[in-house]
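Entry 14. Structure prediction run on the chain below.
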Amino acid sequence: MYSTEPAADIAIDLSPTIKVYKDGKVERLKGNDIVAASFDPKTNVHSKDIVYSPENNLCARLYIPNQRQNQNQNQKLPLLVYFHGGGFCIETAFSPTYHNYLNTLVSEANVIAVSVDYRRAPENPVPCAHDDSWTALKWVASHVNGEGPEDWLNCFADFQRVFCSGDSAGANIAHHMGMRHGREILDGVNVVGIVLIHPYFLGREAVGNETADAKTRDWVAGLWRLTCPSSTSGCDDPWINPVVAGSDLASLGCARMLVFVAENDFLRSRGWFYYDKLKESGWRGNVEIVESKGEQHVFHLINPTCENAVAMLERTASFLNHQEKA
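Output returned:
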């Protein structure tokens, strides 16, 4: 997507992601394509869209394995709530990238999934995305007694086996949903685990082998300023840095955590730093981390059939289906 607007009219240029013009116009340079919900014959997965927030006209896309609709309703499936990435400002739950990924994951793991769409910055700055995601989780929880508005969840979802996941900014959201669930327990919902894929966490000071290159760090910081202009602490804002002073990681509201990082990802060291700090926090759960060698940020979405992406998918499916021994 290429702009026809004069360069002089650009207020903020964060190519190749987004541009904002002096008149307030926002131009998203990627993540604009969408596909309809459907039955996918390659994976035998059905999907449909539902409204979870009428006041903000927000939808989620639901996914269910084909065979489940004709099976015994007493045999429930794990429920995955997924949050898409895109720096809080691009992509949607309805893009081909996420639609294909959720179809494949739902088929591989044999789970039900709710892929959440949320309001995006800069028009709706952080924490709007987090607020919308919590609204979606409360909508999911409204089905616990089998009396919610969506039959797929009423009939087939196991609310004692609920998981949250997301990539990049979506992983950031998934973390914060786990923290909020720890503070405001959703009745009848057992969030067993959270899967963070290449989580979008930042900090003012470099950690580990994180690059100190000023140009790279300035671009990343600029994107954060665009999406959260009210922040007074920059990249040490708790919304983007989950380990700043005062963070209570020990209250994370799940029993298990799986973190994926990629060797050549700018965010790699942040993922490892989060993993280490979570282990040190006194949290009583179990956290694992998996690093994909030679890979870039969200490579599994860009090249889903490569060996490392297939391994990630299988590891995620195993995590969603693991049950603790009595």
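The CA atoms of residues 110 and 326 lie 22 Å apart.
Filed with the rest of this week's runs.
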